[in-house]
Amino acid sequence: NAGVMQNPRHLVRRRGQEARLRCSPMKGHSHVYWYRQLPEEGLKFMVYLQKENIIDESGMPKERFSAEFPKEGPSILRIQQVVRGDSAAYFCASSHMNTEAFFGQGTRLTVV
Amino acid sequence: EDQVTQSPEALRLQEGESSSLNCSYTVSGLRGLFWYRQDPGKGPEFLFTLYSAGEEKEKERLKATLTKKESFLHITAPKPEDSATYLCAVGQGGSEKLVFGKGTKLTVNP
Q1: Who contacts A28 (Cβ-Cβ below 8 Å, separation ≥6)?
Q2: Which of B97, B99, B100 has the most A C-beta neighbours within 10 Å, making it the best mutation to test the interface with A?
Q3: Which regions of chain B are under pLDDT 70?
Q4: pLDDT at residue A1, as a whole number
Q5: DSSP assigned state of B79
Q6: Within 10 A of A101 (CB to CB), how many other CB atoms are there?
Q7: Beta-carbon contacts of residue B48 (< 8 Å; ≥ 6 apart)
């Protein structure tokens, strides 16, 4: 049973470009979460999605960031017009309702 | 606002030297307290969920306990392969998101 799959593992973007991060949840999981981890900081919640619905986006920056979890295919975290401060590790997690979340290996975004 | 504070920030142990990591939390309506292990360059690996004060869970050399204000992760006779950052997180009732502490970086020397 494959775990949470994230790709790419590493992504380099120039300032002003768009970054697309993908996440396929564990088989049978319908809840997807995105977290961001900055150097020397803890994991910070960004957004919680179920299929075709954003349930909680209280941790998402108001501008440039968006997330989706379509009926078919992986969840996507999209960052438009990236800036140096967006450089971080982005982790996706998935779960059943009210159970522990399992994390992927992360996408390390570097903005140059 | 939910808060999670982990101490110490870093801990160095000799192989076989038992110790405990602390996680203090404030949350309105605890849904669960979660412990994860994170190796460098990897994603967090789930260890335990604790739901109510007095609960304890064990896995190999690790034992997690919970009170109304804090949780401890006890490590008995650690080995070098236990070296990692240990993360504590709380979930609030009515919300699926987790609030994480900054972690304790554990190094076990042979």
Answers
A1: A96
A2: B97
A3: none
A4: 52
A5: -
A6: 29
A7: B34, B35, B57, B59, B62, B64
Nearest to A28 by CA among A107, A102, A91: A102
Q: State whether residue A44 is helix, strand or coil.
A: strand
Where helices occur in chain A by DSSP H, the ranges are: none
Task: Please name the residues in contact with A12: beta carbons below 8 A apart, sequence gap of 6 or more.
Answer: A109, A110, A111, A112
Residue B6 vs residues A97, B56, B103: alpha-carbon distances, Å: 27, 18, 6
Secondary structure letter of residue A84 according to DSSP: G
Q: Which residue type sits at A91? A: F
CB contact under 8 Å between B46 and A41, yes or no, is: no
Q: What is the pLDDT of residue A42?
A: 87
Report CB contact under 8 Å: A55, B96: yes
pLDDT tens for residues A46-60? 999 999 999 999 999
Task: Compare CB distances from B100 to A43, A98, A106 and report the shortest one's residue.
Answer: A43
